[in-house]
Specification:
It is built from 14 helices and no strands. By secondary structure, it is mainly alpha-helical. It has one domain. The longest helix is centred in the N-terminal third of the chain and has 27 residues.
């Protein structure tokens, strides 16, 4: 069994768990604080754990000026790739838009094959299809999806579509650009730099948009801190997977199943019942994950 593939699977699962937990806590703050505000503070808080990791091994990469500029571009790109996603969720139905956004994993798999020369066996595409099908079932409301594809009278089904497709394009190419830049490099200082520039870009956006970032309800910090910690843990896991292995598509596909832990946590702590389709989707994700080491 390929040890690099196992590392990629572990990194992908780390991303899935981190983003799943972060989304669970985000559900508790967005309505009270606001989407951009929650996003900004999550980015800022995530800088803390990266500073601790960097302090443990303060090795600054010997980059040329254009390479540091590339890190800055990746950070700004990261920050602004979030914004259309949140705008879309504010306009339309999350049950429709969330599974569409999760399709970035398929886009990245295709891009990694075309641009990074990653060899993806046909049998592994089957596992990818199973995992992606599970992601769609976990995230989507079939009634809303049917309204979207059947061209029904519910025009709200297509609200936010332009923004979510923009977000998919931005995030997919960002992940490919990140993988190309890491390429065996130490991911900690790079991710730290990206995180700082991401937070700065969101700060600038908030000022231009007239959004006030102050957190007046101090009780929200008990949710904002886990958002930042789990979100950066997910990025750290994915970045490690990109840096240490060649299986970009595996890391990306598994991390895209972030809805799985979110639903499990919501069921356990928010007494939200999972739909039968979501249970089926969970089984598909687990089945696809179990297949990957053997393909």
């Amino acid at each position: 069994m390929d040890s690099n593939l196992l590392v990629a699977i572990g990194a992908g699962l780390g991303g899935m768990l981190g983003w799943g937990f972060a989304d669970f806590f985000a559900k508790k703050t967005i309505d009270q604080l606001g989407d951009i505000e929650t996003l900004f503070w999550g980015q800022v808080i995530g800088i803390g754990p990266l500073l601790i990791l960097f302090a443990a091994n303060p090795d600054v990469p010997h980059f040329r000026t254009f390479q540091w500029a590339y890190v800055a571009v990746l950070g700004i790109w990261s920050g602004f790739s979030y914004i259309p996603t949140y705008v879309a969720f504010g306009k339309g139905k999350v049950s429709v838009l969330s599974p569409l956004f999760a399709s970035y994993a398929v886009v990245v798999a295709i891009l990694s094959a075309l641009l990074l020369s990653e060899t993806i066996p046909a049998t592994r595409w089957v596992a990818f299809a199973i995992v992606f099908g599970g992601v769609v079932l976990i995230s989507g409301d079939p009634r809303s999806l049917w309204g979207l594809f059947s061209g029904g009278e519910d025009r709200s089904a297509t609200a936010g579509m332009r923004e979510i497709f923009l977000a998919i394009a931005l995030y997919s190419f960002w992940l490919v650009a990140l993988d190309r830049f890491l390429n065996g490099r130490d991911w900690v200082p790079i991710l730290l730099g990206i995180r700082v520039f991401s937070a700065l870009s969101l700060l600038v956006y908030a000022r231009i948009a007239g959004r006030k970032l102050a957190v007046r309800n101090t009780s929200l910090w008990k949710y904002l801190i886990p958002i930042g910690v789990f979100d950066v843990a997910a990025f750290a896991s994915v970045s490690f997977g990109y840096s240490a292995t060649k299986y970009v598509s595996v890391v990306t596909m598994l991390s895209a199943a972030f809805s799985l832990p979110t639903i499990a946590l919501a069921r356990a702590f928010l007494t939200e019942r999972a739909l039968p389709m979501q249970v089926a989707g969970s089984l598909l994700v687990v089945g696809g994950v179990m297949l990957l080491p053997f393909l």
